[in-house]
TrEMBL record:
This is HTH tetR-type domain-containing protein. GO terms for molecular function: DNA-binding transcription factor activity; transcription cis-regulatory region binding. Signal peptide: none annotated. It comes from Acinetobacter parvus NIPH 1103. It comes from the Bacteria. PANTHER family: HTH-TYPE TRANSCRIPTIONAL REGULATOR BETI, HTH-TYPE TRANSCRIPTIONAL REGULATOR RUTR.
């Protein structure tokens, strides 16, 4: 019989993720220790290993959370499948993204920008999983707007102009 998920465990995981995001945004991944993260999150150091399988797992989760803050995969997939006209889907995508980009005092953009300018293997792993799925969803919207087949070679530059920083 599987154990039920504890809500206090979810709270602990969220506290660690938020603390890690703040510290990594401020200091960078290499300069941020697990001890500092645990202290800011007010959790036991072992909780990082328990919830994230170590430092690398935590950083992958921070990158995923940073990107999800701006582009939520479930919302994006719902938008792709919605009955809205293609141009309205694209407008909705831009409006949602723009509303997030103007937020003040959030760590999400700083973490992702740090990773883009000094990429690690974690960025490649993110792009091959979460990033690839989101890219495909945006590609579908652009395909619908442009009326080009999703595999048409001219579609890639269009998609890049939409999602590039």
């Amino acid at each position: 019989m599987s154990r039920a998920r504890r809500s206090d465990g979810d709270i602990t995981k969220s506290k660690i993720l938020e603390a890690a995001g703040q510290l990594i945004a401020q200091n960078g991944f290499a300069q941020t220790t697990n001890k500092e993260i645990a202290k800011l999150a007010e959790v036991d150091l072992a909780a990082i290993n328990y919830h994230f399988d170590g430092r690398d797992g935590l950083y992958r989760a921070v990158l995923a959370e940073a990107h999800t803050h701006y582009i939520n995969e479930q919302q994006l997939l719902a938008l792709v499948d919605s009955p809205l006209p293609p141009t309205q889907k694209l407008e909705t995508f831009f409006a949602t993204l723009a509303s997030k980009l103007v937020e003040k005092d959030v760590w999400h953009s700083k973490v992702f920008i740090r990773e883009l300018f000094s990429p690690t293997s974690h960025l490649q792993a993110f792009m091959q999983s979460d990033g690839a799925r989101k890219f495909q969803a945006v590609r579908k919207i652009i395909s619908q707007v442009s009326e080009l087949d999703e595999n048409h070679p001219a579609l890639l530059p269009c998609v890049l102009s939409v999602v590039a920083p």
